[in-house]
């Protein structure tokens, strides 16, 4: 079922025009920037969007303007995990990895315990905080790492929200979801 849902969601996202995706990403960014969870965060980890994904680039720009630390994942292929690394630009010192995702070329790992907000990508979210990732499990493993206590925020287009997803025990739910249309909050206890 997850495979079918991934395929359907990828098709839906690929059908969206770049102009519409940019407008929706901007709307979702404005909603997230207005939230208390963002305002209080000193260190924000976000992803560098793939084509067709909701793009949190405006969130990064707002974070820098407010003096926040901006982090992004770098994949550690040997350990099959992601590491949070500080970035200071969305254009330089990045390389595209084997999955087609931009990541920092260098930088020391940022302590997971010092991250206040993690903006999590997914192909789909449900209305209980469940998420359907791309299947690698990188974020699920990162979010259950020792020391991670950050608010986890799904970031998506409204079209990516479904009533319910097939969630397994190892799937890590987000504590909030921001789309271009709404903000949803979920209990941290529903993991």
Model description:
- The protein has 191 residues and is of the alpha/beta class.
- Helix content is 26%, strand content 24%.
- The protein has a single domain, classed as 3-Layer(aba) Sandwich (Rossmann fold).
- Strands 3-2-1-6-9-11-12 form a seven-stranded mixed β-sheet.
- It is globular, with a radius of gyration of 15 Å.
Order of helices and strands: HHHEHEEEEEEEHEEEE
- The low-pLDDT segments are none
CATH topology: Rossmann fold
Terminal CA distance reads: 21 Å
Name given to the CATH architecture: 3-Layer(aba) Sandwich
CATH H-level superfamily:
NagB/RpiA/CoA transferase-like
Outline: globular
Largest sheet: 7 strands, mixed
Radius of gyration: 15 Å
CATH class categorisation: Alpha Beta
* Proportion of residues in helical segments: 25-40%
- Mean pLDDT, to the nearest integer, reads 91
Q: How many domains is the backbone divided into?
A: 1
Structural class: alpha/beta
């Amino acid at each position: 079922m997850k495979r079918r849902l991934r395929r359907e969601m990828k098709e839906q996202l690929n059908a969206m025009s770049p102009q519409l995706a940019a407008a929706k990403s901007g709307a979702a960014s404005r909603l997230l920037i207005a939230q208390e969870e963002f305002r209080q965060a000193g260190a924000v980890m976000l992803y560098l969007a793939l084509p067709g994904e909701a793009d949190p680039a405006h969130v990064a720009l707002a974070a820098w303007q407010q003096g926040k630390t901006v982090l992004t994942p770098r994949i550690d292929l040997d350990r099959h995990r992601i590491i949070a690394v500080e970035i200071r630009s969305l254009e330089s010192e990045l390389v595209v990895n084997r999955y087609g995702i931009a990541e920092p070329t260098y930088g020391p790992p940022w302590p997971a315990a010092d991250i206040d907000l993690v903006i999590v990508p997914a192909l789909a979210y449900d209305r209980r905080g469940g998420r359907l990732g791309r299947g690698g499990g990188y974020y699920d493993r990162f979010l259950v790492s020792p020391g991670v206590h950050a608010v986890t925020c799904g970031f998506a287009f409204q079209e990516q929200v479904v009533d319910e997803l097939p969630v397994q025990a190892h799937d890590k739910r987000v504590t909030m979801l921001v789309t271009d249309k709404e903000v949803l909050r979920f209990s941290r206890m529903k993991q």
